[in-house]
């Protein structure tokens, strides 16, 4: 009993007494005398029994006596004699299935296994692997034995088969683990392409697809593609084009948008475009998707429609089942078109493309296209201000992603649901969505979006402790080298913290640093939110005497940038109304009518409407401290602020009361 407790404490056996460690038993400090006792018990059973037990130990804690006996070279009568003797000796007992037996203690099985000479252990694993393979056993079980038989070629075949089996069972993280193992085995295998029926590059691309679904836990995606580019012949421009396109995707996931654009352009340069090809569909489809995400809607539509034209010329249509990489690329192009048209306000065309995307997902059983539809159509609802639909689409998609085990998609969709709930002023629910986001140690966009969402909520609630924790996470991730689009929310949160905290000079410096970068990078959606906050900060500063004329000029330039770009973004019109009122306030004309327009623009949006009511009350008080509307405006704003636990706004409302 003491030995069992010791092994459990060390993690060598589980609660059921089964051996779960890869470390040899002698390294756990089991006294030699105990192992001798087990050995003597086994010796008394005879040669036939020990031969069967050795095979059984190789198979595992649970095994088929028929398989173990046949590999040991015994006939049925001899197997029956062994079963009688070994069960009587308490070495193993009957299991739940026919011909199934289980070792009574992990110590017995592991003593047998560790006592095998390396050569015999390898030979027995090979024998077990051959039997299991011939019987059609699960490829993951077969793989275990080929690995221990030191047969990389058959292990590679079993690994790829295990990945396909896991894909069919929607065991996504297992798919990734098997594919990564296949890459590790590739160079040691004989004729790996013939063994698995695909090239090394195709395997790399499958691994990258899995990273998109489940995250790049090793942080090796970019180096993996770069190594594959070196591996491929310089004359194979088509394959190099596909790899450059894949590299662009990984750059984008890591927030390196400028590098992603350069990689896309290089992919287009390399791919032959004088005739339709599946590879051209892949490159164009991926490029269209990233153009859409970067906000270059016209170019996204142009490239997306070109991708569809090439796909149609090849017979890759939305109403046919096609699970090839080209079919998936066509789906990305359709998703980009649907989203780009939606963000431009052409909802009819957008809906038509989203319907096409859903049909493709249904025909192909393509979970990625299905999740793409949930993500992108939800985003369109957000941009057009239909937050309830945005929330519904994001929650439904997150549930599907969770069911499919697609962690990174689930993270994206839950963060989108947070954005919808934040805009709906349902902050406690928004916080719940963030808590449900699957975490990862990798610095990818979904994880950064989660951390920045935490920051945004903490800034408006005045929760310094939570904000400090989020800033520490960003510091560990080191986002200084990321593109402005990715850093935008962090700048907005920092500026908001400084503004509410009264450190207006520091907030102004954030705006001076960030807004030119966002404008130069055409990150107009992020710039819209930051510009609105920056203009508000300048107005606060000038009212308090903290700023000067250069601050006012900066605010005017930011307002002009906002109007010039007219970003298709969530709350764009509402933010513009508030920015216009704040700019007038910065110029010394705190106009109640402009604030009434802002209140109407934000109608029904909770927090931001409450802020506009507070500002309207301030504007009225500046000319008539006894105005009858001041009290009701502040009361209604206070109800919202208190419900949301928006402490900085609650305190500001309290200070504004006569």
TrEMBL record:
The keyword Signal does not apply. It comes from hydrothermal vent metagenome. Keywords: ATP-binding, Nucleotide-binding. One of its GO terms (cellular component) is cytoplasm. The keyword Metal-binding does not apply. Gene3D superfamilies: Tetratricopeptide repeat domain (1.25.40.10). SUPFAM superfamilies: TPR-like. InterPro entries: TPR-like_helical_dom_sf. GO terms for molecular function: adenylate cyclase activity; ATP binding. The lineage of its organism: unclassified sequences, metagenomes, ecological metagenomes. This is Tetratricopeptide repeat protein.
């Amino acid at each position: 009993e003491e030995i069992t407790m010791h092994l459990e404490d060390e993690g060598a056996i589980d609660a059921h007494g089964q051996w779960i460690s890869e470390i040899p038993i002698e390294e756990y400090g089991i006294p030699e005398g105990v192992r001798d006792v087990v050995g003597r018990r086994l010796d008394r059973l005879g040669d036939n029994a020990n031969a069967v037990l050795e095979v059984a130990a190789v198979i595992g804690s649970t095994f088929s006596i028929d398989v173990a006996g046949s590999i040991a070279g015994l006939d049925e009568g001899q197997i029956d004699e062994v079963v009688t003797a070994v069960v009587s000796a308490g070495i193993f007992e009957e299991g739940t299935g026919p011909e199934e037996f289980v070792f009574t203690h992990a110590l017995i099985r592991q003593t047998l296994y560790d006592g095998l000479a390396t050569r015999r252990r390898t030979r027995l694993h090979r024998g077990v692997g051959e039997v299991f393979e011939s019987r059609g056993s699960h490829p993951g079980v077969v793989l275990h034995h080929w690995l221990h038989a030191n047969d990389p070629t058959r292990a590679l075949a079993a690994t790829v088969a295990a990945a396909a089996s896991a894909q069919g069972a929607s065991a996504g993280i297992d798919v990734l683990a098997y594919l990564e193992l296949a890459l590790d085995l590739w160079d040691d295998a004989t004729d790996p392409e013939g063994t698995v029926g695909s090239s090394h590059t195709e395997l790399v691309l499958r691994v990258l697809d899995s990273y998109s679904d489940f995250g790049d836990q090793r942080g090796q995606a970019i180096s993996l593609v770069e190594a594959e580019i070196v591996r491929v012949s310089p004359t194979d421009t088509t394959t190099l084009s596909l790899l450059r396109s894949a590299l662009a995707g990984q750059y984008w996931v890591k927030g390196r948008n400028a590098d992603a654009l350069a990689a896309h352009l290089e992919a287009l340069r390399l791919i032959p475009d004088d005739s339709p090809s599946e590879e051209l569909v892949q490159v164009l489809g991926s490029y269209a998707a990233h153009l859409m995400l970067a906000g270059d809607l016209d170019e996204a539509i142009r490239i997306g429609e070109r991708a569809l034209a090439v796909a149609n010329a090849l017979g890759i249509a939305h109403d046919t089942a096609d699970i090839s990489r080209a079919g998936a690329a066509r789906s990305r192009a359709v998703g980009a078109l649907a989203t780009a048209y939606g963000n431009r306000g052409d909802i009819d065309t957008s809906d038509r493309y989203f319907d096409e995307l859903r049909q493709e997902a249904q025909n192909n059983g393509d979970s990625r296209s299905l999740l793409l539809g949930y993500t992108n159509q939800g985003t369109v609802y957000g941009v057009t201000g239909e937050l309830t639909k945005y929330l519904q689409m994001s929650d439904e998609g997150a549930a599907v992603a969770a069911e499919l085990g697609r962690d990174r998609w689930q993270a994206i969709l839950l963060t989108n649901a947070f954005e919808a709930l934040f805009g709906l002023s349902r902050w406690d629910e928004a916080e719940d969505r963030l808590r449900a986001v699957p975490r990862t140690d990798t610095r990818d966009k979904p994880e950064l979006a989660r951390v920045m969402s935490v920051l945004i909520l903490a800034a408006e609630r005045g929760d310094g402790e939570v904000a400090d924790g989020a800033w520490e996470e960003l510091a560990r991730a080191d986002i200084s080298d990321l593109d402005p689009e990715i850093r935008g929310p962090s700048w907005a949160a920092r500026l908001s913290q400084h503004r509410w905290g009264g450190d207006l000079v520091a907030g102004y410096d954030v705006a001076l640093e960030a807004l030119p970068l966002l404008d130069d990078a055409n990150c107009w959606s992020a710039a819209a939110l930051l510009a609105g906050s920056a203009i508000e900060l300048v107005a606060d500063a000038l009212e308090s005497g903290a700023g000067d004329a250069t601050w006012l000029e900066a605010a005017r330039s930011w307002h002009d940038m906002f109007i010039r770009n007219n970003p298709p973004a969530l709350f764009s019109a509402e933010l513009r109304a508030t920015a216009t009122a704040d700019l007038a306030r910065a110029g010394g004309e705190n106009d109640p009518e402009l604030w009434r327009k802002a209140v109407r623009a934000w109608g029904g949006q909770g927090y931001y409407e409450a802020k506009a009511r507070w500002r309207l009350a301030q504007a009225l008080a500046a000319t008539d401290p006894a105005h009858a509307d001041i009290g009701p405006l502040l009361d209604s704003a206070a109800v919202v602020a208190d419900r949301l636990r928006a402490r900085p706004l609650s305190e500001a409302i309290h200070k504004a009361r006569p």
